[in-house]
Amino acid sequence: MSTGVGMSSCCLSGKLHEGKPAGRVETIGGLQAYVAEPENGSKEKTVVFLVDIFGWALPNVRLLADNYARAGFYCYIPDLHEGDSVDVEFLQTVEPQLPVREKQSLVNKGVQTAKIGATLGPWLAKHREAVAKPLMDGFINAVRHIPGTNKVGAIGFCWGGRYAILAAQGGNYEPGKGIDAAYACHPSLVAIPADFDPVTKPLSLALGDKDSLLGEKEVGQIQELMKHKAKEVPSEVRIYEDQVHGFALRGDWTSDKDKKAMDDAEKQGIDWFKKWLS
């Protein structure tokens, strides 16, 4: 039986990062997409970013795509929410960082949970798998037809982390197309083992040990699943100490430990794609 792991207030936690994205916006496969290209403009190693609930316009994900571009990858961030991402204001007002959250009263936590449920419930229904996955598949197929594109990877965060795992299953792509490798950071809404058993492409996972959506039990199940699949599918599972859901994308840059976790998670993805997209 599959264990479904849902979403909670942690999905709405984190901070906005400072900086001005250096890429541009194009329309690809019917979707708007942020594009960040390497200095040489090569599409030999392409990475598609699958966003969290805050969407493709979040500065954090665009700045991260810029970093991947500097590392030699041609990057796309498609608007899989079609202009309907969750308001970024929730980052500041609904869910504080972990140290603050741990000091809150049960009443305050209850009020926040009610607000979050009122926002996330309808949003998740509107952007369910039956709607979102065809958009992702169509975008990846469109990218595959762009001249110069060779190997393609998918990186996903939170909501998009699960879709990176689904992309690693193969599935609804043209013969010989789809992605070549995937990297999922703190995925949410995953079904264990149902989402992991069909994986056929190299898959890397970055998980926080304080993630309320993937507890010790779920992490152990995922590790065991990927271990059993190791002979047929290359994989890695890295656990980041004292890191909450969303840490790889929305962590606190003012905390040395959180900043290092973000940097290490970024390096994990870059190293993974250098290995499997070369």
From TrEMBL:
<dbReference type="Pfam" id="PF01738">
    <property type="entry name" value="DLH"/>
</dbReference>
<dbReference type="InterPro" id="IPR029058">
    <property type="entry name" value="AB_hydrolase_fold"/>
</dbReference>
<protein>
    <recommendedName>
        <fullName>Dienelactone hydrolase domain-containing protein</fullName>
    </recommendedName>
</protein>
<feature type="domain" description="Dienelactone hydrolase">
    <location>
        <begin position="31"/>
        <end position="275"/>
    </location>
</feature>
<dbReference type="InterPro" id="IPR002925">
    <property type="entry name" value="Dienelactn_hydro"/>
</dbReference>
<dbReference type="GO" id="GO:0016787">
    <property type="term" value="F:hydrolase activity"/>
</dbReference>
